[in-house]
Give the backbone structure.
Amino acid sequence: MIHPAPTTKIDPRHARGTLLELRPETATKPAFAVVAFPNTRYELHLVPKSTIATPPGKRIVGTIHAQAKRIDEVGTGGRYVEPVAGRPRRVQGVIVAVEPSTNEIVVNAGVPIHCRPTDPRQKAADFREGQFVSFDVMEGAEFTPLA
């Protein structure tokens, strides 16, 4: 059971978390949001795709978008995002949705992540729901808050 238990159902493609902080842009890094997710120790650093009006410490719902270097089907292992704190670098989990129109798959890795393959030999339509996949993530994973 998710703690605290959600009171409303959300689309399984949406990520529900807590905004920990918004860090401003520096000379070497773009601005990013630090978002924590229930029942995990994840504190993911995600680039906001639009303005985040949610104050730190409050719940936030949105979508996480990342670009996958190459997506491989795997037979063993768990669902995870590496590292636990920082920008996502490696993701492994079960495909919960395939969206050919946007060329994305949605992977449940403890938190749902929309992934676009960047390997020209792959496209979202090559995959199916229920497949267990693993891949490296390119820098710049984004978070789009829902209104």
In short: The longest strand covers residues 59-68.
